Every structure is written in structure tokens, then in C-alpha cells.
Amino acid sequence: MAFDVERFRARASARKSKLGQPIVWQDVTGSTNDDALAAARAGAPHGAVFVADVQTAGRGRRGHAWLARPGEGLLFSVLLRPALDLAQTSALTLAIGLALRDAIAPIISSAASIKWPNDVLVAGKKLAGVLVESQLQGDRLQAVVVGVGLNVSSREFPEEIAARATSLALLGATRLERETLLGDVLDAISTRVLGYEAGGIAAILPELNAADALRDKRVRVDAVTGAARGLDEHGRLRLEDDAGEMHALSSGTVELV
Amino acid sequence: MQLPLDELQSLLKTLDEGGASEFEYEDEKIRLKVAMVRGQASASNSSGGSPSSTVAAMPAVFAAPAAVAADPNVVFVTSPFVGTFYRAPSPEAEDFVPVNGSVKQGQTLCIIEAMKLMNEIEAEFSGIVLEVLVESGKSVEFGQKLFKIKKS
Lengths: 257, 152
Fold this sequence. Notes:
The structure holds two protein chains of two kinds. In chain A, 26% of the residues lie in helices and 31% in strands. Chain A has helices spanning 5-10, 32-41, 86-89, 92-104, 159-162, 178-199, 205-211, and strands at 23-29, 49-55, 73-80, 112-115, 119-122, 125-137, 140-151, 218-221, 224-231, 237-241, 246-249, 254-256. The longest helix of chain A is centred in the last third of the chain and has 22 residues, at 178-199. Chain A is globular and about 55 Å long. By secondary structure, chain B is an alpha+beta fold. Chain B folds into two domains: 5-60, no CATH class; 68-151, CATH 2.40.50.100. In chain B, strand 6 and strand 7 form a beta hairpin. In chain B, helix 1 (5-18) packs across helix 3. Chain B starts with a helix and ends with a strand.
């Protein structure tokens, strides 16, 4: 079923935040993040949302594909113009992971954890992914685009990801209507972004460490293999290699080994 | 003189090995011009001298910043934070900007990734990309020079 913009709008008055104004729906697009980035360059406001039933070039970090069947996932990007210094911007991605977890916690009975920096996992399987992109000119943060892919009604996945993916439907969620879910997720993002603007990483570090899906697991991040040891004060992943040396990583692909 | 001695020595060694006879370099702080007399410099090579003896044997002329003003239209784009530098939107894609290519204000020059946040670094002004100073996929530090651009 196609995403129903009117149904989304009809519920706006019951919502806490104004994110989602304006909202642009497309049945098919390349990538909602690209749409939002282009709109940001053209001056679109804080809170603009781009939602699609199908993304033909949907992507995660560095072009990794995001697989979803038409209508089974909630795929959207929200444009934010937050009041943040550049030095604070990076760890905003961590607050977004918490926002997704906040939004789904009330509707599923299992606990969700976060695979650094912001994949949302339930029982070790990926429920949602986030790709955050920003536009900077000099020392000015022009825009932040938060792209979210949330598996909603999928009951099966392509073979290559079946062992690693889950959905709200498979988890027995009490709510599967994408229009309502979008409102919930946007409200959670709004709350977390305001909290992050006020309190920075320090205010969410205890929650991030408590939700850390990688804690004490053996992982490989590009060339370094070792045990994940939580997040440091900047939100970087602490990795203790086999020689006992501690690394603090701010980017890279994290694989469980 | 802002250029550290060890950097200068390795620069001169590289130039000597590459057979250059003249070299000009500039950034915000310094403009440097080096001229080498080949016949004399070769003597230090044959003796297999250390970089410092190579430098000592090469007549070099340094222009102080005050003597030759740096071109105010040549500017560097630096990294706003620690991260990973990417010249293209994905590994298979073309670079955002080629060397000697023109850029418009607001055009994306590169991505710096930090904490899975992909930051598109946009040009603050229009111009020509003279040099790309970092290899794609490498880590960059706060303030590290990424691009040399001549404003148009």
C-alpha cells in the first residue's frame, strides 16, 4: 500500500513536533537523502521530510544498498538545520540512533540495542538503519539530512540478509501503520536533537553505553580487530586489540567476527 | 621561515632525486623558490650523503614571504574535523571535482566521514581546483589542507 500523505497530515495536530512540514511523498525515487540534500541546497526549511515507497538507489554508508520491498519499509529523510558547532555535529548521529530506539520501544516487547554508531538491532538482527549526511561551507553547518530505513511489515527478506534482518511485523509490534510510525519517529528525532543541542554527547553517553550492542564482542573495523569496549567521551568506539592496545575509532565499517 | 627544517630537507631530497632544477611552493604563510645547480648537487649524490649533506651541497635561494607576496586568490580548503576523506560519493562513482576542474560556490568538493556522518564539504567560492592534497579513503586531521583552489 502506498504511503498516505493525507493520513499523515491528519494526525499532525496530535503530535509533539512540527517535523514533517512540508512533506513530499514519491512512490519511487533514487534516494530520499539525495532528494533532501538537493532541497536543502535550494533552501528548504528545517523539518522538511521526503518519503518514498521505493528507493532505487537507497544507500547506507559509502553506497551500501538498503534493501526493502515496495511499501514494506518506512523510508524517509528529514532535513534539519540544528544549532550546532561543527565540532559537535558528528556525534549527532548517535542521538539519532537513540531516537529510533525511543520511537519503537513502546510498540515492541523485546529490548532494542544499538550497533555503533546507529543501527538499531533487536536480538542481534537489524531493524533500522540510519544514514546522516551534512552540508558544510567553511565553518558553517548548512543542513543535516537524517535518512532512516525502518523495516515495518516485511515477513521475509532476501536470502543474503535474512539471517541479519528483522522487522516490526516479525517482532509482533502493536503498530505497523507507516503514517503513524513516521510521526512517532519524527517526534523522537525532534526531542533527541533538542536534547543534543542543549546537552551534547555527555548527556547521552550513559544511555549509549547501556544500549551498546557491541559491548565486549569481537569486532573488526577495517584493519583493526579486537574487543569492543564501549564509547569514549567523544562517542568514538573503543576497540581493544589483541595486544591490549586501546583504539578510539571515529569511522569505518564495523563487522562482528 | 615557517617550513620546518626536516620537511625542507626531505623536500629538497625529493626534488634532487626527481631531477628538478627549479621549484616554487606557496601557502598562506610562505612562498618558497628553490633553484638548484645540477653539476654541483650531483657530487653529494655520488658520495651517498645523508639528506642534510645533500641540502648543504645544493645552492638554494629562499624568498622571504615579504619579498614575494603569495597570490591572495590561491586558498586552501581545510578539514573541519577529524575523519575520513572521500573524493567521490561512493567507491565506484566519479570524483566530485577533478584537478584543474572548475567549481562553483556551494558545489560539493568531498566528503569527510566521522561517526558515520557523511559531511559534504562545499566550496565557499567559485574557482579552479589546483591540487587535491589528500588521497581518497585516508584519515584527515582537524585543519588539514584538502584542496588548493584558485578563486575566480
